[in-house]
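Why DNA repair protein RadA? Reviewers of the renewal asked for a concrete example.
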Amino acid sequence: MAKPKRRYVCSACGSVTSRWQGQCADCGEWNTLTEDAPQTVFSTRHDLSSGGRPIAFEPLDAPGSLPQRRTTGLAEFDRALGGGLVPGSAILMGGDPGIGKSTLLLQAAARIAQAGGQVVYISGEEAAGQVRLRAERLGLAGAPISLASATSVRDILTTLGSMDAPALLVIDSIQTMHSDQIEGAPGTVSQVRGCAFELIRYAKENGTALVLVGHVTKDGSIAGPRVLEHMVDVVMAFEGERSHQYRILRSLKNRFGPVDEIGVFAMAGQGLQEVANPSLLFLSGREEPVPGSAVFPAMEGTRPVLVEIQALIVRLQSGATPRRAVVGWDSGRLAMLLAVLEARCGLNFSSAEVYLNVAGGYRLADPAADLAVAAALVSGLADRPLPKASTWYGEVSLAGEVRPVAHGGIRLREAAKLGFASAYAPADSSGEVAGIRRHDIAMLPRLVDRIMGDT
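Here is what the prediction returned.
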């Protein structure tokens, strides 16, 4: 057997190097390289073609039954999960500190326990008394939850093995767990990977829905090895600004349901409350339109959400370099859109500062937002408000074409439901929706003409 080699793994991005250094060469983080447990390197003469146990194959059309989901009692949480908790599934939930991950899971655990399901809540960051105080503040002190504060995976699995398998097991958080069979402090790559593997194996064998709370790095991604996201069935991100009352639970990976589905909550004195109509949160509600404001019907999974896009154009008097500031949208896509408006429409943004904001702290990734952003930019540049009660959506190409996007009918129906009278969109086959007038826009210069009032 060959001599094992040392290797060091970055706890921020998971990259591997053969020697230790102060800064990770891949992600640029400092003091994140930790020595991983050495791997056993076998000789090339080691043969794995015999001595194993034969496995049984099954046909692809073998009869089977769909898993019976268990609802959490929170409709927005169930929506993000794809319909509820699947027995034997592993869920990883990440989010900024203080965003409300523990509060949400405690509320869901209490609903399941009150409905007759056995729930085990293991806290590795807080004492049991702290969790009880939160439950009392939320009015959930009477929920029959089995609560414990522990960090040893061996102790947790030994205790779970001596009792009936629970319907829900919450581990808060996976970075605080440790195994005495793995070298390294809690939170290292090897510890997180090994502890998660043991907990997931228990969940699969016993049909328990497992929820792992994960820490995040300063850029918002889940801390620890990237392989952790591959091991679990569902990856969820709890987003939002602590200065705002709303929170968005977004599904990033789901083996049992649609991806990019969201659930919207509002933080209140009694915990997180569900928001049935999130469009009302992201619209200003003003009576008269103002320049630089456009409403965009976004699609989050299967749910349409109307958001307001705001643009401010400031002309510079001196030769200073104009600034571009973006909140809630891709800055690279804004630069591309500004270039298209200058090259195809003859507008001049080179001597002006451009500020773009998605109201309410919402984050947009839908490419159909191009037309709404362009409308807000042109409206802000011309200092003319857009037509009242109008929505805008469509993808803009480098040639200035407005390309069709998916789910046009769903976007129009949501806009009509909230009282919008007109929609400016690309020509597609989504058809007409009662109560809303549609204006087809094929080229971006046509949009500029409408806003500038040349036609």
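The domain at 75-276 is CATH 3.40.50.300 (Rossmann fold). This is the kind of structural detail the renewal will allow us to pursue systematically.
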